[in-house]
Amino acid sequence: MGYQELVADQTLCTGERKGSKLPCRGSLYKCVACGTTGCRQTQNDGCTGQAFSAGGTCLKCGARNSVLAS
Ligand SMILES: [Zn+2]
Ligand SMILES: [Zn+2]
User: Fold this and answer.
1) What ligand has the least distance to the C-alpha of 27?
2) Does residue 27 contact residue 68 with C-beta atoms inside 8 Å?
3) Which ligand minimizes its atom distance to the CA of 45?
4) Per-residue pLDDT band at 70 (split at 50, 70, 90)
5) Among 3-7, 26-30, 44-48, 52-56, which is the least confidently predicted range?
6) For the chain, which residues make up each domain, given as ranges?
7) Ligand having the closest approach to the CA of 38
8) pLDDT of 32-69, one tens digit each?
9) Which is more confidently placed, 14 or 7?
10) How far is ligand 1, taken at its centre, from the CA of residue 8, in Å?
């Protein structure tokens, strides 16, 4: 992967889907409480880069206040 691709992918999750092992490339969200960034999955432990549960709850601090990372 080249530098340009890395830059273009900055707002996409670089994690890997559990089970399917496919690149996630989901939208990244940022927790306004603790600053954690990661994707949001419909189930817990859905991606190695997951930071939020289906309801939008931060898996690190428990806050429910996340915004789309830019
Ligand atoms: Zn992800
Ligand atoms: Zn948080």
Assistant:
1) 1
2) yes
3) 1
4) confident
5) 3-7
6) 1-70
7) 1
8) 999 999 999 988 889 999 999 988 899 999 999 888 98
9) 14
10) 16
- Quote the ligand 1 centre to 49 CA distance (angstroms): 4
Look-up: residue for tokens 């898996």? 59
What pLDDT sits at residue 3?
57
Cα(4) to centroid of ligand 1, in Å? 20
Contact in structure between 39 and 50 (CB atoms under 8 Å)? yes
Judged by its nearest atom, the ligand closest to the C-alpha of residue 59 is: 2
